[in-house]
Amino acid sequence: MSLTAPAPATHGTPAPAGAATVELRGLRRSFGTTTALDGLDLTVRPGELLALLGPSGCGKTTALRMLAGFEHPDSGEILVDGKDVTAVPAHRRDAGMVFQSYSLFPHLNALDNVAFGLRMRRVRTAERHTRAAELLDLVGLADKGDRFPHQLSGGQQQRVALARALALRPRVLLLDEPLSALDAKVRLTLREEIRRLQQDMGITTLFITHDQEEALSMADRVAVMRAGRLEQCAAPAELYARPATAFVAEFVGTMSRIPGRLRTADATVEVLGRRLPVDGPVPAAGDGAEVDVLVRPESVQVAADPGGAARVLATSFLGATVRVTVALGDGTRAKADLPAHAATALTAGAAVTLALPDRPVLVAPRPA
């Protein structure tokens, strides 16, 4: 699937006065010899939906569970509106959590599942049922209150879980990969619904996902994690267009590595027959060192050329665009996304030349 730079997500309404600021300061956590968090610093702004994105084992779920109060850091602090809640028990934190596995009570119907937390807080029966019914209506399940979990689809169960988390009017909403168990169509619908509800209610939200498209389409900002550390935190469009590290560049979206030669005197790189400025830090590899230039498919220009040293390996029709996979003279592969009308002559085996636009490029050391 091709990803293009998304428009930055924006709030439908300003964050309400009661929206919380969440700060994670220097969080560290180890499990035996495995380091889950290695000094994580992160701030979630009032009313913001911030997505934590990263590969399995990067520490994102550990960070979420610490904020919920289910895990405790070896060191570091968790603050909500400046108040240290690191040692506060989970049931005393003003946070609602939605799990990947729904975690509904099988012996309670949808209405009673939503009302459960209110019952634990000794809210009167009539009031909690009214509130639960309002929330079921909010998530599109007004007529499903008498259904038990086994009588609901996966998407409906997740809506009930979301309504249950919202019933206590939490100041912080925590979502732990809530859509990963759903099929693609339901996942798309529900992520749009979660985003709409979050914007309408203005709840500060931390959303955990390993799905980059999900993070880019839903979040105000995306925090990319790796090995317990924060690599970059930025708005989706900035993260995609200006990745801070090679890891972020290759983890978010599709990226090709094209061989280049570094010129440290003027911070440029020779690539595909031209010199381009290096975007960001210049690798300490020495003048003339072989490096990789990281480029998005939409930035690669491909033209049919009988004398070209590159060859088309394959094309994939993506609707308005065609993804062309090309082998360079040294065997390196690069991907290019072209308008469908511009790719008609680029059949497998065709000789081509490649070019890059005249703008700074991200450079990474060549893997050993």
From TrEMBL:
Keywords: ATP-binding, Nucleotide-binding, Transport
Pfam families registered for this protein in UniProt: ABC_tran, TOBE_2
Residue ranges annotated for the ABC transporter domain, each copy included: 22-252
Keyword Transcription regulation set for record: no
Molecular function GO labels: ATP binding
Domain of life where this protein originates: Bacteria
InterPro entries, sorted: AAA+_ATPase, ABC_SmlMolc_Importer, ABC_transporter-like_ATP-bd, ABC_transporter-like_CS, Mo/tungstate-bd_C_term_dom, P-loop_NTPase, Transp-assoc_OB_typ2
Name of the protein: ABC transporter ATP-binding protein
Organism: Streptomyces virginiae (Streptomyces cinnamonensis)
